[in-house]
């Protein structure tokens, strides 16, 4: 089954297919957003995006519905099918007069130089690269020099993931702009979580974007290809090349092989689904937490903390009864170890869902966790390691892709959430590791509502259940992987990597 037919099956499965019709009272793409915000002054509307296809459709519809502005921040923007279609959607928005601004971290960007420069040359598009020391416009020799002479700077990344449309609606959470974050990959997919925000908290999301936009760490693409000096590439793109790149993008998106007409129809019908989402939103107090560009002043080696680290430490410290966490990586700094020791010693039940060695996409990070696992369990923490064949995702994909053949995809955990006392929940980008604590800038929404907190906790508890995760205390999860992979992790455990994990 093609990915297009699969996605259509997903849409129908979620009740988001093209048979929906817009209500007669609907007068504009963002009318439902305006109505909901006006009805809840000073409050923030919250809707958690658990289903990948819902998260994908929501982004697509918002990009198509924007009339004034789109502001985007992402750590990863791949040049796979999802990344290309997302870029084309932003180009179409710019061509109808929407101001599009994009900030992408430099570390893992893989866009062709001329394509990136051509998009940035559109009069309504501005693209900035965060901390460009290793990829965009940087020759190989310069990358090596930077890695040696500016080690801390190279490791300071922008891990923020936000989308703001017309200053009215925002999406934040764990998903990057790549196929594997939306169950669109038949070989490897992430279990992830986002949240839609309307109203008051959107102002804070947009303010954070403006801070990064004006930071000297965010560099315009055009200047990175100027070729001034030996440290920069010299890349030029002619007007004819720009027009051809735009034509190719549009042609790619028009092709039924890449973007099925049924999917376009489903996106066009999304206002009805969004109306349902809007009416199902919980309006409550939401605090959007974020770090300053650069995270901290860098006076503490690879340490230093940050605003999100401090905010989440206070949240965990406030727990009276329970803390439920989902994090793909689980490596405690000394401060985090002391924090969880204090919390557990007070009798607070701490349960954590993280990746197993069989599901992880990051062996160095797992080595850090493996060095600490026995100590965590001895402290009384209950740890459940996600299975690569998690039953809940396997059944979900079988329902949506009944004709799927060959080896089933590997499932890996990528959601980052903390639920405290089943009353408050954090959904964002922060991994429970020293890198998120000290080096990467992070964001997220702290939602003060028991109904939302209980719903997210129920999702995490489902992921912890037998068939989806192994109990680290009783199941010996490492035995499910090949000896050579275990040997690699044992070697990594011997290295002094923890501050970088």
Describe this structure in words.
By secondary structure, the protein is of the alpha+beta class. The protein folds into 2 domains: 3-16 and 39-280, Endonuclease Chain A (Endonuclease, Chain A, 2-Layer Sandwich), CATH 3.30.870; 291-500, Endonuclease Chain A (Endonuclease, Chain A), CATH 3.30.870. 42% of the residues lie in helices and 19% in strands. It has helices at 3-14, 31-39, 52-65, 81-95, 113-120, 140-149, 151-155, 200-214, 221-224, 239-254, 261-268, 270-280, 307-317, 334-345, 363-378, 391-400, 434-439, 450-464, 483-493; strands at residues 44-49, 69-74, 99-105, 125-130, 162-165, 169-173, 188-191, 194-199, 218-220, 282-290, 322-326, 349-355, 382-386, 410-413, 417-420, 424-428, 443-448, 469-471. It has a 16-stranded mixed sheet, with helices on both faces. Strand 15 (417-420) and strand 16 (424-428) form a beta hairpin. The radius of gyration is 22 Å and the shape is globular. It starts with a helix and ends in an 8-residue tail after the last helix. The model is unreliable at 1-26 and 399-403 (pLDDT under 50).
